[in-house]
Design brief:
It is a single chain. With 141 residues, the chain is α+β, with helices and mostly antiparallel strands. It has helices at residues 2-18, 21-25; strands at 35-43, 46-56, 62-70, 73-83, 92-99, 102-110, 116-122, 129-135. An eight-stranded antiparallel β-barrel has the order 1-2-3-4-5-6-7-8. The longest helix is centred in the N-terminal third of the chain and has 17 residues, at 2-18.
Length: 141
Amino acid sequence: ALKSSLSFTATLLLVAASAPASAAMAGETSTAPSGTYCGQLSSAGVLSDAETHFETAADGTVVGKYVFSDQGHSVDGELAETGDDGDSSDLTRSFMWRDKYGYGQLFVTFTPDFSEFVGKWNAGGSEFLPWDGHRCHQAIS
């Protein structure tokens, strides 16, 4: 299994290296999260499966949508970046989340390649709870 994962990684590196330089220079592709991440968030004391989608808006801020399972029901929400946290790293982002239950803060730290994130969220000053994700490898319809 190790050999196949190494060749898979090498293939990914080759694909990335052969991508046109203009694509990387055309904007936020290397310094911002994009795409859909599969993971979990803690809601009502339970870790629930969650899908979090990030993209960069026209003004350069990161926006997103998410959906998580709450006792068998899907809950949809929106994310809006609330600004730079001041640590001069594009890997740590702060967002405002909003869904049918209300709104609050989400602080997210991405890996350098933006393949996954570890986050914590709260609702108006309450304790922080986990919210994480890694790039989904398959589309969920």
